[in-house]
Amino acid sequence: MGWQPSDQLTQDVALEVLLHGPLGRAELARRLDLAPATLTRISSELIRSGIVTETSQVIEGRGRPTTPLDVVPTAHHFLGVKLAGEFVFAVVTDLRARVVRVLDARHHTGSPEEVVDIIHSLRDEAEADHPIDAVGIAVGGVVDADGAITSAPFLGWTDIPLAAMTERQLQRPTACANDLEAFVEALHWFGVGSGHSNFAAITLGVGVGYGCIANGRVLANADSGVGLVGHWPLDPLGPLCRKGHQGCAEAMLTIPAIKRSMLVATGEQLDWDQIIARARRGDDTITRLLERSGRALGQLIAAVANLTAPDFIVIGGEGVDLAEVARADLLDGLDEHRDPRASKVSIELAPGTNEEWCRGAAVLGIRRFVLARGNANNNPLRAETPATDPTPAPEARAAANQA
Ligand SMILES: [Zn+2]
User: Fold this and answer.
1) Residue 159 near residue 197 (C-beta atoms within 8 A)
2) pLDDT for 22-48, tens place per residue?
């Protein structure tokens, strides 16, 4: 189980083939600026390790026919875990983050020890069919570079070394990170963000989340996970949030806040699915109430577009349906807060399922596996080397090419 790339270049080649394969050798050498002899050495190592294979497909170029290199996605499997208020959700994915199995279990005390025990039993369940190479855990909270949870208020946790605890008990490489960071990284590696160096994501659910890929890397620091965009001011006439802000993102866009507004307006305790279903049927009261949230969402999208210049913005999370049922109002809010001379903001919707959050977590495990590092718990998203386009300094590259 596991592999250890012998150097940075080997890691670069593995990552390039994982993200963009199948790739012909000439193309691979060009992309990574490698001498043919170097690539031959590296590809032999990767083929021996079982990470990469020569595909049967033959590309006829101008020169000789070539058998491209690709990963063997089904040769490795990963457990992606998302911690929620009452449940531990998990998926098993292959090396390209395709989900092959969905698992979950309820936790009772929510203690770190209980949660690690549950992850352990989910791992055992998964391994009945698929040996697990690495584990990724996504948590809605502040997670440090070692995969320790600094604070996760929804579980009442502070300073829990979750990655280290899980790794010790499961005997599998484990990475843990903030769920938004994991979500945007999954979009970047295997989703709509593949091949894009700049994009942003807004998630709607119990809170409002924001994540961003800038210059090919997840933009993250010690404050990621605090939820700093949650109280962005949007509607001066909106309802109050828990902190007393009028019409902030939390008050306008979260599922609990919208449900509260519905209760006040209709006297009915509706759940989120009912609200969306009635909106789709054209219920007047519901539609009118969602208009303001739709406009507010458009305004937040405009702020993100204006401040961070992304290629596009992904809307995800359990409350993503708001963007669809209130689309016209969203676009009004966006237009109102975006200079007409500026380019149109492109918006993508991501599925708002637990499975999607778990896939993000699995990508943490995949990353940990492909970019295997000495420090077992080093948060892969805050690694020292660049994330997706790891190009060592030209001198280092030249030296390696001569080796
Ligand atoms: Zn607020």
Assistant:
1) no
2) 999 889 999 999 998 999 999 999 998
Check whether residue 210 and residue 340 sit in a common domain.
yes
Q: Given 71, 94, 114, which residue is the final one in a domain?
A: 71
Given a contact cutoff of 8 angstroms between Cβ atoms, the answer to whether 170 and 135 are in contact is: yes
Q: What is the structure's pLDDT at 221?
A: 84
Amino acid letter, residue 225 = G
CA 185 to ligand 1 centroid distance, Å: 27
CA 243 – ligand 1 centroid, Å: 5
- What is the number of domains present in the chain? 3
- Pair (378, 325) in one structural domain: no
* Ranges of the chain with pLDDT below 70: 1-2, 57-65, 373-403
Distance 352 CA to ligand 1 centre (A): 23
Cα distances (Å, whole numbers) of residue 238 to 139, 255, 393: 30, 15, 51
- Protein residues with C-beta less than 5 angstroms from the ion ligand 1: 231, 241, 243, 245, 248, 250
Cβ-in-10-Å burial (0-12, 13-18, 19+) of 218 comes to buried
